[in-house]
Amino acid sequence: MIRVFAWILRFVNNCRKDYNKCKEHELSVAEIENSEKQLIRLTQTYYLPDVESLKFVTFIDNDNILRVKSKITERNDESSFWYPILLPDKCEFTKLLIRSIHKKNCHAGIQIMQSLIRERFWIIRARKTIKSILNECFICARFKVKSLSSGPSPLPPDRVNDCAIFEVVGIDLAGPLSVFKNWRKALRRFIARRGRPRIIYCDNGTNFRGAFNDLAKLDWHKISRETSTQKIVWKFIPPTAAWWGGCRPLTYISENPQELIPLTPAMFLIENRCSDTTDIDELNSRDLRKIMKYRIKLLSYLRQRFRKEYLSELIQKQNDNRVREPRIGEMVLIGNDNKKRLSWPIATIIELIPGRDGEIRTVRLKTQHGTVIRPVQRIFPLEVQAIANSDKELKEESISVKSTKPEKVLNTNDAIVKKYTSSGRLVKEPKRLDLLNYNCYRFETLPKSQRGEYVVNKNDLCE
Fold first, then answer.
1. Measured between alpha carbons, how far is 431 from 264 in angstroms, rounded to an integer?
2. For residue 379, what are the contacts with CB-CB under 8 A and spacing of at least 6?
3. Cβ proximity of 91 and 54 under 8 Å
4. How far apart are CA 40 and CA 96, in angstroms?
5. For residues 415 and 462, what is the distance between their CA atoms, to the nearest angstrom?
6. For residue 42, what is the enclosing H or E element?
7. Residue 455: CB partners within 8 Å, gap ≥ 6?
8. From residue 242, how far is each of 239, 246, 337 by CA, in Å?
9. Is 300 exposed, middle or buried (0-12, 13-18, 19+ CB in 10 A)?
10. Looking at the whole model, is its pTM more than 0.85?
11. Where is 68: in which H helix or E strand?
């Protein structure tokens, strides 16, 4: 800004001189300093008309610049440090000055910025002004912005409803293990040992996606029609959202050894831990029916205890770190634990994917390489401060609107007063953008002694 204004001043000076005396080379140091002084004088004249109300001890130096007197005039230091230049806070020149110093000093913080500016300038409400400018810095936002968070969600029905063991399973990495490409044998071995699952939850690993794509190529309508085999339902969690399929402790573990041991899934892997074999000759149908009834009763009892002791403790808790919901079209950073923040890609939100309860927990993002799906915990909005400022301004405007008294609007049956100037000319109603209606427009009138007021009907103006 200073250099542009210096070129403007040179152009004005060249226009006043002869062609042979015009300057054509690069700007000199004196021209740049003169441009800065001119801008400071213009800024102080426009934004600081009433100096006495600022409660500062000020004076005007030889360059006609307003300065502030400090208490360190007896110190052996520079004069600009004794008498800093006074600048307003709500000024574009002040904002550009703060941004320039901020970039030259490697995006320094608020305290360092305030110390650097204090070497030459004294900004009114400096800390608040510097903080507002630094919050708008795009590069600083990449390192300071926090991720979004979603509200608590209920567990899926597959995890709380009664079903057979291994009817609904989840697959996760258990590394470090050597993984081979022949995934079909691993799935067949699992089905042979634990039974065929109905639903499989897993992440977006290449081996799981490959299994899903290969199984999707089969004609399941024909398989279901000719056999009793049903298609396995694959449910993938969002990419990079490991907590969607993670494990957690089932219940409280007591330190008293006399209390009952809580049930775990490992206890159901092997149904019978007894090593001895019952003599088949001693068994009959009556004993088998009795054992079957006992097992059914025991299963019902275990499910009741599971419902009372575990499911009743699953209460949703409020997330205190929740900021707000994402917005379509907002620019965000895609977080990655394996990369530095400087290498995180920038994306735009193009779709909000709600859950069963209507809460937004996943979003679809558009990057320069395509579209991806990520949970809200992995996106870092870059427009948080702008949105917060706009919400604050809207709130302040609503408060000011409520506090002001509405003006009385003229009734359509009321008469309209014509307005005349001191010379006797009729003042016509402005028609710009048609913002006001003829029936509710109020004119300010002059006294009757100056021929400024007489009443006419509203239809006379339309003619």
1. 79
2. 147, 148, 326, 332, 333, 334, 335, 347, 349, 363, 365
3. no
4. 12
5. 13
6. helix 29-47
7. 415, 416, 417, 418
8. 8, 6, 12
9. exposed
10. no
11. strand 66-68
Angle between helices 29-47 and 92-104 (to 10 degrees): 140
How far apart CA 257 and CA 260 sit, in angstroms, is 8
Give me the average pLDDT of each 10-residue run along the chain (463 residues).
85 80 81 87 84 80 88 84 89 91 91 90 91 88 82 78 83 65 72 86 82 85 84 86 70 72 63 51 73 86 80 69 77 88 90 85 90 90 57 48 42 51 67 45 43 43 41
Q: How far is CA 112 from CA 85, 116, 185, 242, in A?
A: 19, 6, 63, 40
d(CA 193, CA 203): 23
Phi, psi for residue 58 in degrees, rounded to 5 = -120, 165
Among 234, 251, 351, 360, CA closest to 311: 251
Cα 172 to Cα 182, 202, 262, 288: the distances in Å are: 17, 6, 24, 39
Quickly list DSSP for 296-346.
HHHHHHHHHHHHHHTGGG------TT------TT-EEEE--TTS-GGGPPE
CB 360 within 8 A of CB 150: yes
Q: How far is Cα 417 from Cα 138, in angstroms, rounded to an integer? A: 55
> β-strands 360-367, 419-420: how paired?
unpaired
Helix-, strand-, coil-residue percentages of the chain, each rounded to 5: 40, 15, 45
Q: Which amino acid is at 229?
A: T
Q: Is 451 left (phi over 0), alpha (psi -120 to 50) or beta?
A: left
